[in-house]
Amino acid sequence: MRTFADYLRDAAKYGSLGKAALHWQAKQDASEEAVHVMRMKDRLQVMRDSAQAGLSPNLRSVSGMVGGQASLMNGEEQLGRFGLLGKAGAYALSIAEYNACMGKIVAAPTAGSCGILPGALLAAQEQDGFSDEELIMALFNAAGVGRIIALQATISGAEGGCQAECGAAAAMAASALVELYGGTPEMSAHACAFALMNMLGLVCDPVQGLVEVPCVYRNVGGVSQALSAAQMALSGIQSPIPADEVILAMKKVGDAMPASLRETGEGGCAACRSVCRG
């Protein structure tokens, strides 16, 4: 399973992208599928724990640049105003801040983009009552998408910019949301393509070399892109460019990026005068 085309063929055989990914993983390890379901259940719990821990208003990173801000987004007024997007954004930021404060998170697919996938799924569960079992299958769906992106392109900010980290995470979350809300595997593929194409060219420019600014805020932006992409796909809108082609385009864009915009801390936001070290 190296391409989205492969993934769709397996989904037709096993019933969904999530089931196809679960079957593939169990086959690689020559183990029962139930073992991997339990492992994913454990990861879901870490995601849930980090989302709650990151909402603490007293949280601060060692640098002092981030922490405690997710609690501001999690207020009743903000959640009432922005609905699912507001809750998903609050969770995405809380998990990203918790990571910056050395908390335990699940890289999804990287630590710098760790809030996007769980933020989307946990918010959807709270709003629409999905079971943990449904979230687990959505996570397998996302895992398959992440594998395909990693094999065809990259999920490394140092290699491909933040489009490879937050972009991949948004694509994973968009695909997972589509399956969670009853969409077809083909709709998940369209959602993946939409999310990734909308984040194409996003640079990696960590201030002071830390996974804090602008990283944690890009998790909020990434989860909004995931929700928008899933909404388009579930509405029946089809990407004019197949997911595999968008993934390859992302790789080419990353290859064309100058080194200053690939996690070196030498360009973009990292070079802004207000945040440069004296």
Distance between the termini: 49 Å
**Mean of pLDDT:** 97
Strand percentage: under 5%
Helix/strand/pairing class, anyone?
mainly alpha
**Poorly predicted parts:** none
Question: What fraction, in percent, of the residue positions are helical?
Answer: 55-70%
Largest sheet: none
Morphology call: globular
Number of strands: 0
- What gyration radius follows from the Cα positions, in whole Å? 18 Å
- The run of helices and strands is HHHHHHHHHHHH
The tally of helices reads 12
Structural write-up:
The chain is mostly helical. The chain is 63% helix and 0% strand.
In short:
By secondary structure, this protein is mainly alpha-helical. The chain is built from twelve helices and no strands.
List the helices and strands and how they pair.
Blueprint (H helix, E strand, L loop, with lengths): L3 H11 L2 H13 L3 H21 L16 H4 L2 H25 L15 H13 L3 H21 L4 H4 L5 H15 L4 H14 L16 H20 L8 H14 L22
Helix pairs in contact: 1-2, 2-3, 2-7, 3-5, 3-7, 5-6, 5-11, 6-7, 6-9, 6-11, 7-9, 9-10, 9-11, 10-11, 10-12
